[in-house]
Amino acid sequence: YNNAYITTNNAYYYKVRAYRLIGNCKAYSGFSTITSAKPVLASPIAVKAVSSSYNSINVSWNGVSGASGYEVYKATSSKAVFILLPTTSAKNYNNTYITPNNTYYYKVRAYRLIGKAKVYSGFSTIISAKPILSSPNSVKAVSSYNSIYTSWSTVNGASAYEVYRATSSSGSYALVSSTN
C-alpha cells in the first residue's frame, strides 16, 4: 500500500491485519506490530560544479520531486563552515564574482514549504571546482610568403595572451609573443 499525498515530515503509524472471507463474514488475524515512517524529501543527486568563466562556477543538480526550492552552500575547504548562498527554485546556481583559480566547495539541499515553514532534505555530497579562464577558441592562422598572422576570439577576463610556436604539431613549443 502506498499512502500518497500526505504531509511531508509528519510521522505516520501503521498496523496491518489479514482477513479471510467465510461466506459473507470476515475472519481476522491479530494486528501486526506497529511501524512508523515520515515522508521526507530526497537529497539532491548528480550535483556538479564547473567553471563557467574566470570568476564564476555553475552548480547544477537533478530536481527533487516535491521540492519547493533549493539551498546552495559554499565554502573554501571541505572542512570549513559552509555559507548559504541565495535560494533558488531552479536546478542550478551560478556563483559569480569569486576569486579566479581558487577552489570552492559546494553542497545542496532541497526544501519544501509546509505553510510558512521549510522542511529540508539531507545534504548532497560535497563537490568542488575552481573558476578558470576559458581556452582561446576560433584560433586561425593566415599566411603570406614570409609571415603568419594568428588570431583568436576574446577570452572573458583575460589580461593578455601568450603565443607559442613549434615546427610540428607534436614538436617542442616555445613562447614567441605576449600580447593583449
Set down the secondary structure blueprint.
Blueprint: E1 12-14, E2 19-22, E3 25-28, E4 35-37, E5 48-53, E6 56-60, E7 69-75, E8 83-84, E9 92-95, E10 104-114, E11 117-120, E12 127-129, E13 140-143, E14 148-151, E15 161-165, E16 174-179
Antiparallel strand pairs: 1-4, 2-3, 5-6, 6-9, 7-8, 7-10, 10-11, 10-12, 13-14, 15-16
Poorly predicted spans: none
Q: What is the residue-averaged pLDDT?
A: 94
- Note the run of SSEs as H and E: EEEEEEEEEEEEEEEE
Helix content: under 10%
Shape: elongated
By DSSP (H or I, 4+ residues per run), the number of helices equals 0
* Beta-strand content bin: 35-45%
Major sheet: 5 strands, antiparallel
Report the structural category.
mainly beta
Termini gap: 68 Å
- The total count of strands amounts to 16
Radius of gyration: 29 Å
Features:
180 residues, mainly beta, three-stranded antiparallel β-sheet, 16 strands, elongated
